[in-house]
């Protein structure tokens, strides 16, 4: 006999009911049997990394440091490389992945909008896919870095 699946319940005690099985874990919310990272999953920190936008004129590989500020839905990142760029936007999260939608400007004159999506992170890194538009072109690529020691 196969057990009938039930919807998971939210519990502040750190227990997640998934079907008939019960597991004790550190306190967190559970949604449909998956662990859900809360929006307080802090991306804030100093990273070594970069981004690689690709457009009709080819792929650029921009390597440098990334200073990320993240509190609740507010997100900003300063990329210090060539060119230096500032990104700012609104952070949201669905399940384990985050998204930032906002605007950016760079030292080379490029400025426009961006969508950083499928953002994942751990204690040592963050990464995501990115697309955007500026006065020169539409582009897409990846963005991320490895956390630097304090």
In words, what does this structure look like?
- It is a single chain.
- The chain has no helices and 14 strands.
- It is globular.
- The model is unreliable at 1-40 (pLDDT under 50).
- An 8-stranded antiparallel barrel has the order 5-8-9-10-11-12-13-14.
- It has 2 domains: 1-36, no CATH class; 45-147, Beta Barrel (Lipocalin), CATH 2.40.128.
- It has 150 residues and is mostly beta strands.
- The protein is 0% helix and 61% strand.
Q: Which fold name fills CATH's third level, the topology of the largest domain?
A: Lipocalin
Task: Give the averaged pLDDT, no decimals.
Answer: 78
Main beta-sheet annotation? 8 strands, antiparallel, barrel
Question: Which sequence of strands runs across the widest sheet?
Answer: 5-8-9-10-11-12-13-14
- End-to-end separation: 54 Å
Order of helices and strands: EEEEEEEEEEEEEE
Instruction: Kindly give the count of domains.
Output: 2
The CATH architecture of the largest domain can be named as Beta Barrel
- Detail the poorly predicted runs: 1-40
